């Protein structure tokens, strides 16, 4: 088991495709949330290492604050995955970084692996091109 | 009441006498009590039935006062006065009926029956004889006037002159009063005109939809139109800078005041946006502008300013920006959804996997093109300077950069502006070339690289893609399948250019020759229009 991941994404097609890719890579997708309340419930349930957070959710552009809330309120690593990366280009306290949608499977693979490794304090690598890591 | 003179007089003397007489402003005036009293006294003292004050004006005589003489008394009388005026002192005709000068005079021979005449000259302070005070009797007086009568006539003549002088003084004073009044009137009219022009300015200023104000060269505001009072709900003109700037939102105040002080110091027009306190509606965004008024020497003498409520425009702008942002987000999300859909669709068909991946990558290139050229608001503007071809391509090729961040596609040459309509074919063209290079060409080898040279040639743009350090190719270059079709469609179809692929020993070389206008169709269309 390589890691437990929460997908916060309101587009079910994107969320499902992401889940397929991650599960192909032997990650465990603990859940998919389309809005803030669902995400909070899953976070409270615990056992999550990484959260992939879209900024625009079914209840509006709530992902930005939700990511901060999760990042600052728990030890979950928060990685934004959004079509509007500019909205967080100055960084968000408590979160790890951002990658742009649409993206390809390989970018997802390298970005998630990099985030997991950083979290676990593995040997430091160069961040993949597809990922912007917040200072 | 005038009588023609029958003897010519020297014109100069007459003209001067007339001028002097006019200065008394007495000619053709109504009888006056004071003159009548003096004249009556002369008749009483001299014991004559007739007495008069006659004034000589040119060829006429005019009587200021007449006692015992009918109005219709003929013009002939004047010859008595005419003669009398040529004498110094009192002139006396004791018996006209035997006086050779008057013996045939109609007044003597006619019903008037004049016999006795005595007249004292009316002499002004310059020694000029202006007329006579005279008494007339129908009975001859061989003894003439008594000494008392003689003296009385002289004294009364002096009195007549005194009355006339007094009259002249009064006239002069009245004239000067009139002049003063006229001057006052002129001043009043001027100030009325000024007041009228001020009223007109106020009417114009008050009818403007904007707030209007005016300030002296020192920046001291001394006028606000009605709109300003309506807007702010203030009732008194602010006494100083602190008072009017207190209406500006604290967050904007320093900025607005700094801009105002800068304009005062430099004389440059003032323009600043700030939030102004509305009497009922909180703070509203306001555009403040002012222009200096200069005198002929170029010195600023006043400032005229306006305040325009732009709250609604601001809100509209914000709504528009939000809408644009929302729309763009949806478009990008659709790219992501299509990409995910392709991936999910191909998932259970192993043979479709490669196809799905390349299609998804092309969709990714389109999404990048959209991201690059869409209208941005400040918040979402990518950190790329300007919409130039090189900047766009650098962004597109970032995915192929080396692990060390060094670009593997090097772009050199002449950059050019390009716009959104050209972004899609350009993105697809170079996405195919880069993907192909990554699979089969220079970018598939660790040391391989690509030189992309951009050059202007007249109204053409020549883009040369030259790969180096790729794997040994054992035949002419071949971009497989749909990729080559996409290249041709992009260059020859949409960009109206020519595409040339050649195989050199060091790698693939692609030459793209397109009209420069094809890279900026929007601009070209605007220039044509």
Structure, described:
The complex is a heterodimer of chains A (135) and B (529). Helices cover 36% and strands 21% of the residues of chain A. Chain A has helices at 12-24, 36-45, 63-73, 105-119; strands at 4-8, 28-33, 50-53, 77-82, 97-100, 131-133. In chain A, 47% of the residues are buried. The mean pLDDT of chain A is 90. Chain B folds into four domains: 2-175, Beta-Lactamase, CATH 3.30.450.40; 208-309, 2-Layer Sandwich (Beta-Lactamase); 311-383; 385-529, Heat Shock Protein 90, CATH 3.30.565.10. Chain B is 45% helix and 22% strand. Chain B has helices at residues 11-24, 33-46, 78-84, 106-109, 147-207, 226-232, 241-245, 250-266, 311-346, 353-373, 389-396, 420-439, 482-494, 516-519, 521-528; strands at residues 2-4, 50-57, 60-67, 91-93, 116-123, 129-137, 211-216, 221-224, 270-277, 283-294, 300-309, 409-413, 449-457, 460-468, 498-504, 507-515. Mean pLDDT of chain B is 83; it is low at 1-6 and 377-385. Classes of the chains: A alpha/beta (135), B alpha+beta (529). Chains A and B meet through helix 1 of A and helix 9 and helix 10 of B.
Secondary structure elements and pairings:
The complex is a heterodimer of chains A (135) and B (529).
Chain A: E1 4-8, H1 12-24, E2 28-33, H2 36-45, E3 50-53, H3 63-73, E4 77-82, E5 97-100, H4 105-119, E6 131-133
Parallel strand pairs in A: 1-2, 1-3, 3-4, 4-5
Antiparallel strand pairs in A: 5-6
Chain B: E1 2-4, H1 11-24, H2 33-46, E2 50-57, E3 60-67, H3 78-84, E4 91-93, H4 106-109, E5 116-123, E6 129-137, H5 147-207, E7 211-216, E8 221-224, H6 226-232, H7 241-245, H8 250-266, E9 270-277, E10 283-294, E11 300-309, H9 311-346, H10 353-373, H11 389-396, E12 409-413, H12 420-439, E13 449-457, E14 460-468, H13 482-494, E15 498-504, E16 507-515, H14 516-519, H15 521-528
Parallel strand pairs in B: 12-13
Antiparallel strand pairs in B: 1-3, 2-3, 2-6, 4-5, 5-6, 7-8, 7-11, 9-10, 10-11, 13-14, 14-16, 15-16
Helix pairs in contact in B: 2-5, 9-10, 10-12, 12-13
């Amino acid at each position: 088991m390589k890691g437990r991941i929460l997908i916060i994404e309101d587009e079910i097609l994107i969320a499902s495709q992401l889940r397929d890719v991650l599960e192909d890579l032997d990650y465990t997708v603990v859940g998919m949330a389309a809005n803030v309340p669902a995400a909070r419930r899953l976070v409270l349930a615990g056992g999550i290492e990484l959260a992939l957070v879209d900024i625009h959710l079914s209840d509006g552009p709530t992902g930005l604050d939700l990511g901060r809330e999760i990042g600052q309120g728990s030890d979950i690593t928060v990685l934004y995955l959004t079509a509007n990366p500019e909205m967080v280009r100055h960084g968000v306290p408590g979160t790890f970084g951002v990658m742009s949608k649409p993206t390809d499977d390989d970018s997802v693979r390298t970005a998630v692996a990099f985030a997991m490794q950083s979290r676990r304090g593995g040997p430091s690598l160069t961040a993949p091109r597809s990922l912007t890591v917040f200072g | 009441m005038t009588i023609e003179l029958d003897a010519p007089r020297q014109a100069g003397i007459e003209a001067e006498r007339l001028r002097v007489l006019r200065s008394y402003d007495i000619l053709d005036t109504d009888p006056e009590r004071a003159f009548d009293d003096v004249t009556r006294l002369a008749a009483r003292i001299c014991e004559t039935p007739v007495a008069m004050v006659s004034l000589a004006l040119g060829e006429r005589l005019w009587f200021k006062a007449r006692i015992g003489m009918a109005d219709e008394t003929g013009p002939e009388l004047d010859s008595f006065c005419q003669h009398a005026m040529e004498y110094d002192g009192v002139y006396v005709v004791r018996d006209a009926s035997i006086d050779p000068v008057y013996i045939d005079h109609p007044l003597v021979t006619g019903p008037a029956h004049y016999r006795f005449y005595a007249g004292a000259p009316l002499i002004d302070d310059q020694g000029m004889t202006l007329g006579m005070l005279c008494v007339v009797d129908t009975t001859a007086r061989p003894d003439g006037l008594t000494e008392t009568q003689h003296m009385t006539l002289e004294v009364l003549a002096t009195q007549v002159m005194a009355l006339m002088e007094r009259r002249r003084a009064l006239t002069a004073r009245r004239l000067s009063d009139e002049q003063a009044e006229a001057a006052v009137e002129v001043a009043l009219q001027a100030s009325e005109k000024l007041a009228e022009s001020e009223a007109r300015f106020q009417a114009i200023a008050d009818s403007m939809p904007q707030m209007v104000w005016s300030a002296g060269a020192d920046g001291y505001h001394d006028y606000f139109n009605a709109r300003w009072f309506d807007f702010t709900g203030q009732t008194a003109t602010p006494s100083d800078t602190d008072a009017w700037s207190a209406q500006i939102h604290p967050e904007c105040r320093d900025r607005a005041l700094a801009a105002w002080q800068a304009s005062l110091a430099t004389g440059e027009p003032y323009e600043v946006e700030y939030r102004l306190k509305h009497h009922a509606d909180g703070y509203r965004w306001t555009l403040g502008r002012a222009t200096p008024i200069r005198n002929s020497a170029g010195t600023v003498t006043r400032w005229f300013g306006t305040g325009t409520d732009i709250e609604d425009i601001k809100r509209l702008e914000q709504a528009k920006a939000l809408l644009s942002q929302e729309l763009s987000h949806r478009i990008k999300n659709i790219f992501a959804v299509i990409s995910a859909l392709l991936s999910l669709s191909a998932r259970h068909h192993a043979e479709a996997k490669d196809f799905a991946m390349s299609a998804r990558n092309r969709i990714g290139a389109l999404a990048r093109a959209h991201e690059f050229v869409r209208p941005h608001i400040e918040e979402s503007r990518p950190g790329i300077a300007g919409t130039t071809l090189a900047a766009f391509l650098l962004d597109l090729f970032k995915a192929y950069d080396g692990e060390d961040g060094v670009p593997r596609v090097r772009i050199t040459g002449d950059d050019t502006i390009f716009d959104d309509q050209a972004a899609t074919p350009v993105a697809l063209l170079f996405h195919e070339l880069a993907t192909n290079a990554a699979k089969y060409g220079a970018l598939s080898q660790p040391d391989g690289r690509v030189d992309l040279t951009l050059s202007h040639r007249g109204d053409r743009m020549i883009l040369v893609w030259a790969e180096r350090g790729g794997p040994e190719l054992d035949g002419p270059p071949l971009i497989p399948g749909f990729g080559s079709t996409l290249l041709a469609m992009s260059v020859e179809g949409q960009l109206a250019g020519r595409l040339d692929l050649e195989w050199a020993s060091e790698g693939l070389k692609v030459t793209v020759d397109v009209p420069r206008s094809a890279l900026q169709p929007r601009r070209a269309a605007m220039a044509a229009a």
